[in-house]
Write a structure and sequence with these properties.
Blueprint lengths: L2 H30 L5 H30 L3 H23 L7 E2 H16 L13 H7 L10 H4 L8 E4 L11 H11 L1 E5 L3 E6 L5 H16 L10 H13 L7 E2 L11
Parallel strand pairs: 1-5, 2-4
Antiparallel strand pairs: 3-4
Helix pairs in contact: 1-2, 4-8
């Protein structure tokens, strides 16, 4: 009598998992693509998926007589196989190096850039920024147990939290003129308080302007005196050139978790 509701819930969970996997798989395939051959990579990945599914089904049929049909034997086997599957997925994800900048990767890249810029003798090589492969080794997928990224999102390691898309109504009226001026000139506005760094982006801002603004925001988390983007022009150009030389995608950014750009009139 419970078969239908249990099967319905299981099917719903399977579809949700499939949608989540499909959404993340596209960027993983893109990281393996070379010379615009994304279609070839996707086709090969689909073939491997079908092969792995067929092998798994075959093994399942072979061991099913040994497992039996009682919940007392099925559930422990199901739990063990699921944990093994999740461990394999986690291990596979640690080998994927994405060349796009999200908040965590951008924080790693910018802090490493500033560190190497101040102390060039502390690292080996000519690149001022780490490569996507080096950053993937430092990238934390799950976070701490109590502060899991799955539930709380990425938790910054900077001394101040950078709020991308800072609410305009929380900015004092005295500062609005500076905000408007910066958004017109630079496409972004960055200002700091005791605990946070406000990062506002105009609707027409380019990807390079956003990268420059994020670099400025990270600098403000470590400096007591405020600077502006005009003073950081040489450092911004050096950073952008270093990103391109090491293979980072500076055109497609994933820094904004929510659309909160400001339209200027």
């Amino acid at each position: 009598s419970l078969f239908l509701p249990i099967a319905s819930v299981a099917n719903m969970g399977k579809n949700v998992s499939w949608l989540a996997a499909s959404a993340t798989r596209a960027n993983i395939h893109l990281s393996f693509a070379r010379q615009a051959n994304l279609a070839d990579v996707t086709a090969k990945a689909g073939s491997q998926t079908v092969l792995a599914s067929t092998i798994g089904t075959t093994l399942g049929v072979m061991i099913s007589p040994l497992v039996g049909s009682t919940p007392a034997t099925i559930l422990p086997v199901l739990f063990g196989i699921s944990m093994f599957h999740l461990a394999c997925v986690y291990k596979a994800l640690t080998k994927v190096s994405c060349n796009t900048l999200n908040v965590q990767r951008a924080e790693i890249v910018v802090t490493e850039f500033l560190s190497r810029l101040k102390s060039p003798k502390t690292y080996h090589g000519n690149n001022l920024v780490p490569s996507p492969k080096d950053v993937s080794k430092k990238e934390d997928i799950l976070g701490d147990f109590m502060g899991s990224y799955l539930f709380n999102g990425f938790q910054t390691k900077l001394s101040k939290e950078i709020i991308i898309g800072y609410p305009l109504e929380d900015i004092s009226e005295e500062s609005l003129s500076n905000v408007y001026s910066d958004l017109q000139r630079f496409g972004v506005h960055v200002s700091t308080s005791k605990e946070q760094v406000a990062f506002l982006i105009s609707e027409s801002a380019t990807s390079h302007q956003i990268i420059a603004g994020y670099l400025h925001a990270v600098i403000l988390t470590t400096e007591e005196t405020e600077s502006n983007l005009e003073e950081l022009e040489d450092k911004v150009n050096l950073f952008l050139n270093a990103l391109k030389e090491t293979g980072w995608n500076t055109e497609n950014l994933f820094l904004e978790t929510l659309p909160a750009r400001i339209a200027l009139q």
